[in-house]
Amino acid sequence: MRRDSIFYQLFQQSPSLLFELLNTAPPNAANYRFDSVAVKEPKFEIDGVFLPPETDSTGVVYFCEVQFQKDEQLYERLFGESFLYFYRNRSRFSDWQAVVIYPNRATEQSETHPYRSLLTSEQVHRIYLEELGEMAELPSGVALMVLTMVDETEAPAAARSLLARSGQSVEVSRAIMEMVTRIMVYKFTNLSRQEVEEMLGITLQETRVYQEAKAEGEEIGVQRGRQDEARSLVLRQLTRRVGELPEALRSPLDSLSLDQLEALGEALLDFSTIADLEHWLQTHQEG
């Protein structure tokens, strides 16, 4: 399951979600933005960085790592990248914090002794999702994180419960629905769309991806309708100007775009013979 992309999308939609996991948060937490940054020489890619507003003279930078697979060099990489980035951007930041999100303690790096002072400090936060409590008692954003690790036998009921309590507003409800749907699709890759709908008790057409596809389809339909009307009008006008058109000329007309049909509608006012139409098609038709 691609949990990284789910967590990063959650953080992109609501950067302040990170601070719901922590006991303390900066006063301007609502204004943070989530990003990925590159550190050169050597080059590191830090996927999860929460940056304070650029309007602030200095601020606290938060490094975030979502780790669902055991990595025995996670802390080497995390602290190495974070310290180097902080060093190269020291003038921008007054302090740093690091947050590591694990599904459980068993996933954490085994050898932590070299980093004992950091791991027990107030600057490093280790979050174990299975220890956060019952999903029903967690904020919706945090509950979404926990949903990613819920067993498949329990996930459908947990997802439906989360959907049921997300109706604070249309915007919030739709955002939660988007993420719940995405999580469940990742969890149940063997299920059809209809089966996922039945599982969640929703219609996936309600989600943004299907709404956008529907809107795009409707726009295409309107465009095609206008194109058909323009073609019909041009054919009638051509018949009046140059007489009945042979089939060999009707086919090229069918391939004209709406813009080309509108241009032809203006040009045909000067036509007197079929040769005029043939010449226009030769100089204006695509391909």
List keywords for this structure.
single chain, 287 residues, alpha/beta, Trna Endonuclease, Chain: A, domain 1, 3 domains, five-stranded mixed sheet, 12 helices, 13% strand
Chain-wise SSE layout:
Elements lengths: L2 H11 L3 H4 L12 E7 L4 E8 L7 E8 L7 H15 L4 E10 L13 H4 L4 E5 L11 H8 L7 H10 L5 H18 L5 H8 L7 H35 L4 H8 L3 H10 L6 H11 L3
Parallel strand pairs: 3-4, 4-5
Antiparallel strand pairs: 1-2, 2-3
Helix pairs in contact: 5-6, 5-7, 6-7, 9-11
Write a concise synopsis of the structure shown.
By secondary structure, the protein is α/β, with parallel strands linked by helices. Helix content is 49%, strand content 13%. The chain has a five-stranded mixed β-sheet with strand order 1-2-3-4-5.
